[in-house]
């Protein structure tokens, strides 16, 4: 088995401050927030990075992007927010389980 911290969060093996969960995705607060609101939205299935996504992942990726403004509004970010998906070592990715950052100030 691979050793992935976000898979452990999905399985409940390590704690996280969850704000959303369904069959496919989970969102939780970043442990080192870079803004007053800093969420990470991840697929439950282990996908290393955006570089590993294919056309088959289109429904999942679309779901994540469509969910982003819903979660952002719930966190008081109705006026706007930033998103980021760091991809690969060269893209500054530190945790190799696909995640979308949602950042903003309510
Ligand atoms: P990235 O550079 O895009 O791979 O960012 C990884 C993010 O995961 C960083 O912002 C970390 O603060 C965050 N992070 C790492 N471990 C945890 C954890 N156990 N719970 C919540 N966030 C985490
Ligand atoms: Zn994983």
TrEMBL record:
Active site (catalytic residues): 99
UniProt short sequence motif Histidine triad motif, positions renumbered to this chain: 97-101
GO molecular function: catalytic activity
Gene3D superfamilies from the UniProt entry: HIT-like (3.30.428.10)
CDD domains (alphabetical): PKCI_related (cd01276)
Domain HIT as annotated: residue spans: 5-106
Pfam annotation, one family: DcpS_C
Name used for this protein in its record: Histidine triad nucleotide-binding protein
PANTHER family, sorted: HISTIDINE TRIAD HIT PROTEIN
Listed SUPFAM superfamilies: HIT-like
Domain of life of the native organism: Bacteria
